[in-house]
Write a structure and sequence with these properties.
Shape: globular
Distance between the termini: 63 Å
Largest sheet: 2 strands, parallel
Structural class: mainly alpha
Number of helices: 20
Strand order of the largest sheet: 1-2
Length: 455
């Protein structure tokens, strides 16, 4: 046994397996055909994909279309490609090392660095959960007229729903998430077809154009990118990629798992990118010229019933479908955010508490600042939307603290052996990480400048 294999064995002996209750719980067929094997490995990609179509993505994509028509469509596509690369590396880290990203960081950094990364990750998960709580609460308000504070409190019940689903089996969670994704896809595809978008405009927006780099367009492009690649998804994928039962002593099985996990991830992320593209196309086809009036979820909800904006197709039914899609998006991302909270808590600090308590703590930590904001700012839609924007800003700051260790580990032959990233993947990954970091910090600076002007 090599020194590296000994280190990995020590890590596995010291740590419980990542998400121990579901680790290796899904059987995969041996020597089966392509489609049957792909079906067995399909699921983790869907849980990851929901993070790329959460409520934080909605406003930027729809407003991007409403203000600049199809210009920023290429930005949505580029963001999707970067997501595929990052998630491929996260899944590979989990399958090869049998550790999630949090465990890998704990075992390969000193205590001060590990502590800082843990704090940043916990805050990033809190910021992610805040966005999902807000999206769910606003959807309940739009659909049923519930006060936003009440809607926020109801989202705590999601934790117990997830606990029940886990007891039924991890495949049940994957199935529900996929169903919700298909519901969101169906709703927005229907809305886009009704809006009759310009095919020529869509084709022209697929390739990047110089106008993207003009000041106002660039700001919104940064928002789209900043809301796309999220830190928690990388931790999540490195863990749930291990839910399939494979023989890690057989290199052929490991390679097969990597192959089909990558297929699953890419298919689901293509779907997420398509939904984000539909959001932008909907904004361009229905709301172009009204971008300044669409700064919040409530604005979008009401616009779909306003004949002066959604000309020709305005209907309360469309508004209701939009709110249902928003609720489904919030529920989906809630499930994955809660799972990630467990992964990080166990991976970084080995904290072992009952499953229901872990999940309840994760959710309550996120709910508290939302309730405080709702009380202080009057519980208005605008206040909630502002808090959602601030949460996305923090995710922009936290992203490098997750991407850099991931790229470093998966590019290292000491850690990954023969499965280390090829040079061309490493180059693309580092360029993406550096570029995203610069763009995200530019986004933070722009938002801070806007806040300074307001006050």
């Amino acid at each position: 046994m090599t020194k590296e294999e000994t280190q990995n064995k020590f890590a596995l002996d010291e740590d419980a397996a990542s998400l121990e209750e579901v680790n290796g719980s899904v059987e995969v067929p041996k020597n089966a055909g392509f489609w049957r094997t792909l079906f067995a490995f399909s699921g983790p990609g869907a849980l990851v994909a929901v993070g790329y179509m959460d409520p934080g993505n909605w406003i930027t994509s729809i407003v991007g279309g409403a203000q600049y028509r199809y210009l920023l469509l290429s930005v949505v596509i580029i963001s999707g490609i970067i997501a595929m690369i990052m998630q491929y590396m996260a899944a590979k880290l989990g399958i090869v090392t049998r550790m999630d990203l949090a465990q890998a960081i704990r075992h390969r950094t000193n205590k001060p660095i590990g502590f800082v990364l843990w704090i940043m990750t916990e805050l990033a998960i809190m910021a992610t959960d805040i966005a999902e709580v807000i999206g769910g609460a606003i959807a309940l308000n739009l659909l049923f007229g519930l006060p936003l504070v009440v809607g926020v409190m109801l989202t705590v019940l999601d934790v117990f729903l997830l606990l029940l689903l886990t007891k039924l089996g991890f495949r049940k969670i994957e199935t529900i998430v996929i169903t919700l994704i298909l519901s969101i896809l169906g709703i927005f595809l229907y809305l886009v077809i009704l809006s009759k978008p310009s095919i020529a405009g869509i084709a022209g927006g697929i390739l990047p154009r110089p106008e993207i780099f003009h000041h106002d367009q660039l700001l919104l492009a940064l928002g789209i990118i900043g809301a796309t690649v999220m830190p928690h998804n990388l931790y999540l994928h490195s863990s749930i990629a291990q839910t399939r039962a494979i023989n890690h002593e057989d290199p052929a099985e490991v390679r097969n798992a990597l192959r089909f996990t990558t297929w699953d991830s890419n298919i689901q992320l293509i779907g997420a990118t398509f939904i984000n593209a539909l959001l932008l196309i909907l904004g361009a086809a229905l709301f172009f010229g009204h971008g300044d009036q669409l700064q919040a979820f409530g604005d979008l909800y009401r616009a779909l019933s306003d004949n002066n904006i959604a000309k020709g197709i305005a209907s309360p039914v469309l508004s209701t479908l939009f709110a249902i899609a928003l609720l489904a998006s919030g529920q989906n991302a809630t499930i994955t955010g809660t799972l990630t909270g467990q992964i990080v808590m166990e991976g970084f600090i080995h904290l072992k508490i009952p499953m229901w308590a872990r999940r309840l703590i994760t959710r309550v930590i996120a709910v508290v600042p939302v309730i405080i904001a709702a009380i202080v700012w009057g519980g208005t839609e605008g206040a909630m939307d502002n808090l959602l924007v601030y949460s996305q800003v923090f995710l922009s700051i936290a992203l490098p603290f997750t991407m850099i260790p991931l790229i470093w580990f998966t590019g290292s032959k000491k850690v990954m052996g023969e499965y280390a990233n090829p040079l061309w993947i490493s180059i693309i990954a580092w360029i993406s990480a550096i570029g995203l970091t610069i763009l995200n910090f530019q986004l933070v600076i722009n938002i801070v400048q806007q806040l300074i002007r307001l006050f």
